[in-house]
Backbone:
């Protein structure tokens, strides 16, 4: 019987040895995968034992995110507070227990929790852990100017839309406001209240500046004009005849304004066409260039790729043509896309305010596009600056001469064209209005993109305001842009 | 013996450090010394490793229970006292010849069945977590299944010793009582929905049958029958089907029907909640563990993350706080226990003693495998206690009786050898 007893003994030991193997698997090999799981409460708790880094506005003093200490059952936890409430919520985001994270709180979680791969931070966090001391994260200082941000928010009050302001030469985002917004302090406890809004457009959690998709309307003419000039096919003086409409596929596409009596300009040139935003002129430019060329230029400005910014990827969207809610990249643009409508910013175009601000900044920057940036510097708890913003060029979508010619045209649009309400006494402003027909009667999406001063630009801006009955870019969006620019420049 | 005694003290000291309660350690040490003296007096030739191992396991368990739920540790300490008293009683009564138990084998078999039936009875039966395993008389609650395990092993050892030759020949009439008791036991288990218990008893049965008859064919046939039975149970019982689904796919990426809430939800938030959270707990231990008392078992709001942490899931708490090193050390203790148990079976002179020692040891190993393997997702998870470590009075009492059985067999075997 002893032989059988030994067999059973070996079997019993094998079973127990399997348990050691199983434990080893979960604690070493599979551990990283388990730690990443969204429903891993233990990791979530660990996050709250870390004193997250603070987030400041560009002045280094205005606190956007800080911590409140609380003791629960013998353990110290740090909970997030956002002193500015809804003012910065779309950029900063939130970090809560139940709703997870968004905004910079999410994309810079590693830095904020001191778990980034930076040598200094790794060393400090390891020492803290060994000592049993609280791990403290790194602080973020943003590029956003608190005054400009507050002004932008105030100007959007009661409206739906967004304001994005960029410093053209460096890419610093000076303001990024969206309306409606939400109070990040309520996300945890009163989510329903935090996400409620009286505005009809809804969706307060959406960062409209980077993820709001809008029909660009005439602001897209900046790109069409850039393509027209940069290819050398047209000059600012190229002549056009405007009968008040443009003929496409045998049908008349009328200029903006009252369809019964369209504005008719007669003999004009490209500059006048831009100044007064004449659709028929751009319609003909589009037909001459072809949709492929116009789209190629759009791509050079950053369309069809996620606008580079430090916020999480899912809080940004690509600009471009959309079909059934998805980005549409035509294989044969010259047959699949209506070049005339594309040229004046209708067709199936959807753009983000950030993208249009980048276009204005590129023109302001003499044709060189610079990566937009939200984070000025990252500071360790000891006060040492870990990283500092370095302006990074993304490319040169257009020649310097093209950019300068466009600047002149945009200046004329403000001095004597559609954008006169953006004039600032003593400062040369270059801008372009946009009034997109969204297919619901006289309800328009209104736009204004601009930069100033035109000779030495310090700010490039895009303003969008949704759902304006009988509203135009020049009357709704341009005054907002003017006040924001003026506040910075004066 | 003294050296191992010190080891036990050392572990008890560990308990002092983490629980900052000297009384527990002092009490525990006194109890250990008492048990040790009883063993020295009643069974002086018994294996010297078993009691210290059990002392260590019990100390680790008590410490962790104290860390998780101090009130339960107090009750557990009470149960340990009861268990040690019964353990001492068993050693005293049977110190000359435990083999007379063999004559009462049918009584044990029937008692085992009766014990298994108890929870199904109205009034005193109690359903906890979908399994009807509990009996309550007044304020007293216990799981008779744990005791039934010991009785069943006694019965099987006695019966198989007597009939091993004829069983090996395979005559149907000798199989009768065995099969009858067997079918009854299985029916009861199906009724109580105690899957872990079913697996345990069946495993013990097969292992003992193999040892008694040396017929690998019986084991294969048994396993075949088990698979068919398992498949049948899987088809008719949604409870079992769910367990298997949880085992195979604890995580889902899209929402599935959640029978707990009646709504759609991710499975990790619904049925497999407990298993998944327990895996997170184990994973969080990594190599060195968080340290005793430093593990995370509650959310930021103070809500307990894993239900039943100090009974069925105590291993995942230990694995988090002690890490891979501690958990592996704990499992090695179980392995040493099994090694010593099997050694006792090998040294024993007669068939009954061999079958009894090997059966008890294998039962001990299999029970450990069923609960820890379930927690580690090696097999479908079924609720059963971790011997000597989990919180639970019936479990502690039954396992101390198991230890008494092994010591008695060992004492006799070693005494015969010396003679």
Residues:
């Amino acid at each position: 019987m002893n032989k059988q007893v030994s067999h059973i003994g070996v079997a019993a030991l094998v079973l127990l040895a399997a348990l050691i193997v199983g434990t080893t698997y979960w604690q070493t090999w599979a551990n990283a995968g388990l730690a990443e799981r969204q429903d891993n409460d233990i990791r979530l708790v660990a996050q709250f034992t870390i004193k997250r880094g603070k987030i400041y506005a560009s002045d280094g003093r205005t606190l956007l995110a800080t911590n409140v200490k609380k003791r629960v059952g013998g353990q110290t936890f740090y909970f997030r507070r956002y002193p500015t409430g809804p003012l910065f919520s779309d950029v900063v985001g939130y970090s809560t227990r139940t709703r997870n994270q968004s905004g910079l709180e999410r994309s810079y979680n590693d830095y904020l929790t001191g778990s980034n791969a930076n040598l200094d931070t790794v060393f400090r966090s390891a020492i803290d852990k060994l000592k049993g001391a609280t791990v403290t994260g790194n602080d973020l200082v943003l590029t956003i100017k608190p005054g400009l941000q507050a002004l932008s928010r105030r100007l959007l009050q009661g409206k739906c839309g967004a304001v994005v302001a960029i410093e053209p030469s460096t890419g610093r985002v000076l303001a990024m406001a969206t309306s409606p917004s939400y109070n990040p302090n309520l996300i945890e406890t009163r989510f329903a209240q935090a996400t409620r809004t009286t505005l009809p457009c809804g969706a307060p959690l959406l960062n409209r500046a980077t993820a709001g998709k809008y029909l660009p309307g005439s602001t897209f003419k900046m790109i069409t004009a850039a393509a027209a000039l940069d290819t050398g096919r047209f000059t600012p003086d190229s002549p056009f005849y405007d009968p008040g409409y443009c003929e496409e596929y045998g049908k008349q596409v009328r200029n903006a304004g009252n369809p019964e009596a369209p504005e008719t300009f007669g003999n004009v040139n490209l500059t006048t066409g831009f100044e007064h935003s004449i659709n028929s002129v751009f319609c003909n430019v589009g037909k001459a260039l072809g949709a492929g060329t116009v789209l190629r230029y759009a791509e050079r400005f950053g369309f069809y790729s996620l606008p580079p910014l430090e916020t999480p990827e899912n809080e940004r969207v690509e600009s471009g043509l959309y079909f059934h809610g998805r980005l549409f990249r035509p294989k044969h643009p010259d047959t699949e896309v209506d070049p005339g409508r594309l040229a004046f910013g209708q067709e199936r175009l959807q753009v983000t305010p950030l993208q249009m601000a980048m276009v204005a900044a590129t023109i302001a920057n003499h044709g060189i596009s610079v990566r937009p940036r939200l984070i000025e510097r990252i500071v360790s708890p000891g006060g040492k600056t870990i990283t500092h913003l370095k302006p990074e060029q993304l490319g040169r979508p257009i020649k310097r001469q093209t950019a300068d010619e466009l600047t002149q045209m945009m200046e004329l649009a403000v001095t004597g064209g559609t954008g006169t309400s953006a004039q600032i006494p003593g400062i040369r402003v270059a801008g372009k209005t946009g009034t997109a027909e969204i297919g619901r009667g006289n309800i328009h999406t209104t736009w204004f993109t601009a930069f100033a001063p035109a000779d030495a630009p310090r700010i490039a801006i895009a303003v969008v305001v949704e759902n304006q009955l009988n509203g135009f870019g020049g009357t709704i969006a341009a005054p907002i842009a003017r006040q924001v620019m003026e506040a910075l420049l004066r | 013996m003294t050296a191992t005694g010190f080891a036990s003290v050392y572990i008890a000291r560990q308990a002092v450090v983490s629980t900052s309660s000297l009384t527990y350690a002092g009490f525990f040490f006194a109890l250990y010394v008492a048990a040790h003296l009883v063993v020295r007096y009643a069974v002086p030739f018994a294996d010297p490793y078993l009691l210290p191992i059990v002392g260590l396991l019990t100390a680790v368990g008590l410490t962790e229970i104290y860390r998780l739920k101090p009130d339960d540790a107090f009750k557990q300490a009470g149960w340990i006292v009861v268990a040690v008293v019964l353990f001492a009683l068993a050693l005293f009564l049977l110190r000359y010849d435990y083999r007379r138990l063999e004559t009462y084998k049918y009584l044990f078999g029937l008692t085992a069945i009766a014990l298994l039936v108890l929870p199904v009875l109205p009034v005193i039966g109690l359903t906890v977590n979908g399994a009807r395993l509990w009996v309550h008389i007044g304020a007293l609650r216990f799981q008779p299944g744990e005791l039934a395990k010991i009785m069943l092993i006694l019965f099987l050892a006695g019966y198989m010793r007597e009939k091993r030759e004829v069983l090996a020949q395979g005559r149907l009439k000798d199989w009768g009582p065995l099969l009858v008791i067997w079918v009854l036991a299985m029916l009861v288990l199906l009724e109580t929905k105690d899957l872990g218990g079913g697996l345990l008893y069946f495993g013990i049965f097969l292992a003992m049958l193999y040892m008694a008859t040396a017929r690998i064919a019986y084991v294969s046939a048994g396993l075949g029958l088990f698979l068919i039975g398992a498949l049948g149970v899987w088809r008719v019982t949604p409870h079992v089907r769910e367990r298997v689904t949880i085992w195979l796919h604890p995580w889902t990426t899209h929402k599935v029907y959640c029978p707990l809430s009646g709504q759609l939800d991710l499975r990790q938030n619904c049925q497999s909640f407990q298993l998944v959270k327990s895996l997170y707990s184990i994973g969080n231990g990594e190599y060195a563990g968080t340290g005793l008392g430093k593990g995370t078992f509650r959310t930021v709001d103070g809500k307990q993350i894993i239900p039943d942490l100090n009974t069925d899931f105590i291993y995942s708490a230990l694995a988090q706080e002690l890490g891979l090193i501690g958990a592996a050390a704990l499992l090695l203790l179980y392995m040493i226990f099994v090694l010593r148990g099997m050694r006792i079976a090998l040294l024993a002179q007669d068939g009954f003693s061999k079958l009894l020692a090997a059966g008890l040891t294998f039962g001990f190993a299999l029970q450990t495998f069923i609960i820890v393997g379930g927690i580690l997702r090696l097999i479908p998870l079924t609720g059963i206690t971790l011997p000597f470590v989990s919180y639970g009075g019936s479990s502690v009492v039954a396992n101390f009786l198991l230890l008494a059985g092994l010591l008695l067999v060992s004492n006799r075997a070693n005494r015969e050898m010396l003679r």
